[in-house]
Amino acid sequence: DVNGDGFVVTEGGRGGEQTTIASRFIRSNNSWSEAETVMYSEYYMSASRPKLVMNQQGNAVIIGNPSRLVSSVYSHENNTWNSDSTTEDVTIVSNRQALSKKAAMDTAGNIFVAWVESSDTQQYAKVMASIYNNELKTWSEPKMVKSECARCKLLYTSANTTGDFLAVWEDLMQNDGVYRVKIETALMNISSD
What we know:
mainly beta
């Protein structure tokens, strides 16, 4: 964040149980906080590969659970994890998987999550996105920003200070034996999407 603070997040587990553990670095006293469990799951794969995104104010969000948009949220003001409604069960459409999920957080604490959604019954995947409005404490309905991706992979998400969110992905297409990579983007806004 702007003060030089940061986080490290990792995972661990055994016997079908999985935990996500985080520790905060505090630059003002050059020390690490005690590591704490910020997410626990009875199923080993449901908390796999956590990713942490942090805004300039020191708030953070962890994504990792494939069936929820956000796994854990850190409030810098309260120095706590999961202190608000951002981690309510916002289930991704049933019978689908959220692949290559990415997140961004703006300075107001709004969270943008984009993911590639696929299923066994569809030939193509879709790129989906949702925004958490920190003022209203609600998630937007998931929105399809790309309807047909042959082999989509999210590359990047970002947020600015005015509630604009950007998702960038690549789509690997094959035509007459030649592979081509197409880079595409979607822009969403907290007030209009």
